[in-house]
Automatic annotation (TrEMBL):
This is Regulatory protein RecX. Residues 108-149 form the RecX second three-helical domain. The keyword Cytoplasm applies. It comes from Sedimentibacter acidaminivorans. It comes from the Bacteria.
Amino acid sequence: MKKITKIEYQKNNKDRVNIYLDDKFEFGIDLYIMIKYSLSKNMELDDEFISEILVEEDKAKAYNYAISVLSRSPKSEKELRTKIIQKGYDIDIANIIIDKLKVNKYIDDEDYSDRFIHDKINISKYGKRKIKDALYNKGIDRQIIDEKLSLISMDDEISRAYVLGEKKLKSMINIESSKKYVKLSSFLVSRGFEYETVRKVVSKLLSTDFYSCE
């Protein structure tokens, strides 16, 4: 057994305290942990109780780290779990933190997917295939991905691909007509549009381009 001989507030953070056991500094913890376990001077602690306190401290640190990550940019559940583990916390603590954040609505893969799709369509101008691959790599459930992307109509895809293709075609003035189809198709495929969408758009663009040159 070890006895708490001193508890002091940390100089640079009044929300944390230093715990001294048998007149030696032992560890620093969040103030709420001290209150949760009713720690006080002259209280005796066994090794098991100390371990429990330190695990709780790791949870508090991991939670605060996760909040700081989310404050900088939204993350999927998988992305955030990976960051917590890379920070040095074990997977059990990472899972506990993720569950707590989900309950508190700080992470929500459905909401994250909605925002991601909106940005990639309106800002990055991605096609559905590229968006689908990106969401899958972020650990989003396939069912969520399919449900969200099903809301994007073929007409919308074709319209966006056409605008991108039209802009690209204007930069291909000095390229031989026979090569335009391949280059334009490759460009739209790289932007994530499905092959059937690309075929329709490129055929229409080159048909228009042909007549505009006469």
